[in-house]
Design brief:
CATH topology of the largest domain: FAD/NAD(P)-binding domain
Distance between the termini: 25 Å
Strand content: 15-25%
Radius of gyration: 22 Å
Number of strands: 18
Number of helices: 12
Order of helices and strands: EHEEHHEEHEEHEEEEHEHEEHEEHEEHHH
CATH architecture of the largest domain: 3-Layer(bba) Sandwich
CATH superfamily of the largest domain: FAD/NAD(P)-binding domain
Structural class: alpha/beta
CATH class of the largest domain: Alpha Beta
Length: 437
């Protein structure tokens, strides 16, 4: 078979943009096909590429203490567009890497649309294209259109769903700072979070009303499964009245102006660079909009809150990757067809982008006839590749975490030291692999 030289990337989200940009930087002509603005999913609003539909946080940036932070650093060293864009448009968020979402997507869009090796097409792909004379990377994400989802399901069988929920955003000027205090948990960071405390009576009154609140109708999503990483607040509360106080609203590591630890605390995180909007951290929800206003305003600091965006819930779709994909994200019976992003069963912004980067590297290796770039399970990138391709009868989406990395040869009891050692080993592996390119 004649070697293909061109690539089509379907989907202009994080994984698709990451893949297209990497290929283009390698001198490979790439076509990025995105159905916006001709057609939007229920969760997308902007015409820009790389739109964030949930939180504006890409999680921790501390690669010595957090696996997602380590994944970011691995990607930085490999040459990730998404991480570079996040660094360039970041907003203060303590130890986390959060972005001004509009600037972030605009930055990515500019990089993609002005690249001489990328052609952007606005159209809906309703069936998997032929790979006879080209490579195809499908990065259509968790909200893949119905027509393409149907075609994928017909070709690959079992199709799984779960729900993803996003949190509300409030106006900064509407937050009652007389009832709040600033500071990061355990004093880490630069005091970027606004903390909204509750006493015992306020907390239990809040939970009672949360459990009574009316939920939005999910229509065709009713038979899906809820992913633990984006569990709606009301679902968590239904597991016990103290569940939130030991989870989303835990006061551990936070102290008010009098040096006292509150009974429960909601943290607010900057949503944009100007600090005019704040995200209710961990408040993913499927409550009706009026109910969100009523119940969340029971928190003293939010009693006069102006909601700029209410929380919403949407469908996520992913394929049964262990049965379908090879470790490099190619399809087992078609080495020119690749999948990338959350549709593969990786979960999270950074994880999704990483899969797009890794799929693109595998395609570039083939086209350029160079030694394959391979990362083993000592890296987060490699461990995620192994996870999505290893047989698993109960396959579910996976975030970056230190638990999926290959164990150290010698056990280290101290967690901080163990994580740091894992991180140093991972980055050494990445650097060694890069030198072989």
């Amino acid at each position: 078979m004649e070697k293909a030289k061109e690539v089509i990337v379907i989907g202009g989200g994080l994984a698709g943009c990451e893949a297209a940009y990497y290929l283009a930087e390698q001198g490979i002509n790439t076509t990025l096909v995105e159905m916006k603005p001709q057609k939007f999913t229920a969760a997308h609003e902007s015409e820009n590429l790389g739109e964030l539909v949930c939180s504006n946080s890409l999680k921790s940036n501390d690669y010595f203490a957090n696996a997602c932070g380590l994944l970011k650093e691995e990607m930085r060293r490999i040459g990730s567009l998404i991480i570079h864009s996040a660094d360039a448009t970041s907003v203060p968020a303590g130890a986390a890497l959060a972005v001004d979402r509009e600037k972030f997507s605009s930055y990515i869009t500019e990089k993609i649309k002005t690249h001489p090796n990328i052609t952007v097409k606005s159209e809906e792909v309703t069936a998997l294209p032929s790979t006879q004379a080209r490579y195809v990377i499908v990065a259509t994400g968790p909200l893949t259109s119905d027509a393409l989802s149907k075609d994928i399901q017909e070709k690959f069988g079992k199709d799984l769903h779960f729900y993803d929920a996003s949190a509300p955003i409030v106006s900064a000027e509407s937050i009652d700072m007389d009832c709040a205090f600033t500071g990061d948990r355990y004093g880490k960071g630069t005091g970027d979070y606004i903390n909204c405390p509750m006493n015992k009576e306020e907390y239990y009154a809040f939970v009672d009303e949360l459990l009574k609140a009316e939920k939005a109708h999910l229509h065709d999503f009713e038979k899906g499964e809820i992913f633990e990483g984006c569990m709606p607040l009301e679902v968590m509360a239904s597991r016990g009245k103290d569940t939130l106080r030991y989870g989303t609203l835990k006061p551990v590591g936070l102290f008010d102006g009098d040096g006292k630890r509150p009974y429960a605390v909601l943290q607010l995180r900057k949503e944009n660079e100007n600090g005019t909007a704040y995200n209710l951290v961990g408040f993913q929800t499927n409550l009706k909009f009026p109910e969100q206003k009523r119940v969340f305003s029971m928190i003293p600091a939010l009693k006069n809150a102006e909601f700029l965006r209410y929380g919403v819930m949407h469908r996520n779709t992913f394929i049964y990757s262990p049965r379908v994909l090879n470790r490099n994200f190619s399809v087992k019976n078609n080495q020119r067809l690749f999948f990338a992003g959350q549709i593969t069963g990786v979960e999270g912004y950074v994880e999704s982008a990483a899969s797009g980067l890794l799929a693109a590297i595998a395609v570039a290796d083939e086209i350029l006839e160079r030694e394959p770039f391979v990362l083993d399970d000592t890296t987060v990138c490699g461990a995620l590749q192994t996870y999505i391709s290893t047989p698993n009868k109960d396959f579910q989406p996976m975030n970056a975490n230190f638990g999926i990395l290959a164990p150290l040869p010698t056990r280290i009891k101290d967690k901080k030291e163990r994580y740091k050692t894992l991180a140093l080993r991972a980055l050494e592996t990445v650097e060694t692999a890069l030198k072989k390119q």
